[in-house]
Amino acid sequence: MTTPNFSTCDLCDAQLARVGTDFQVLPPVFLHWGLRAAFCGPVSTVQCHEDNSRVREALATPGEGRVLVVDGGASLRRALVGGNIAVSAVKNGWSGIVVNGCVRDVAELQACDIGIRALGLVPLPTEKRGAGLRDVPVQIQGQWVHPGDWLYADADGIVVSRQPLL
Q1: Are 2 and 120 in contact (CB under 8 A)?
Q2: Dihedral (CA of 41, 43, 48, 54) sign
Q3: Residue stretches of the chain with pLDDT short of 50
Q4: What is the pTM of this model?
Q5: Residue 102 DSSP SS3
Q6: pLDDT at 3
Q7: Which residue, 157, 115, 136, 114, is CA-closest to 23?
Q8: Best CA proximity match to 95, nearest among 72, 70, 120, 64
Q9: CA–CA distance, 40 with 38 (Å, rounded to integer)
Q10: Residue 4 has what pLDDT?
Q11: Helix, strand or coil, per DSSP, at residue 56
Q12: N or C: which terminus of the chain carries fewer CB neighbours within 10 A?
């Protein structure tokens, strides 16, 4: 996959009139893992709490350049993405993963050719109960993200648009 050529700062400058309507800026609380500093694509979502069953399922399907946005309820107690899941995402053609929660296996994540953003690291894995919802609107740090939105992430931040910007 090629690295996209965009700047979230430039996207924000061009979309000022849309901020708060169909263009959102996620708060600057996400840390970066994965080899890709910048990534973008149409959004698919998972909503779950301390159970990554649906995350694993989603990333095992063809990604086709999409970005998986995971609403883990901002839990810092269990990791929703680890090395094995990230490798699966790369193998299946996902562009990136944004986790409103934690990840683990940092050395493995840093070796994966994918963009990964999360609130933090925790070594504890999730429970596997088969719980969670796929492709539903999720609220990430106070901002709504819908399946089919477009997400753009780079070193300056993360923005979400209802329509493609590139």
Answers
A1: no
A2: negative
A3: none
A4: 0.96
A5: strand
A6: 64
A7: 157
A8: 64
A9: 7
A10: 75
A11: helix
A12: C
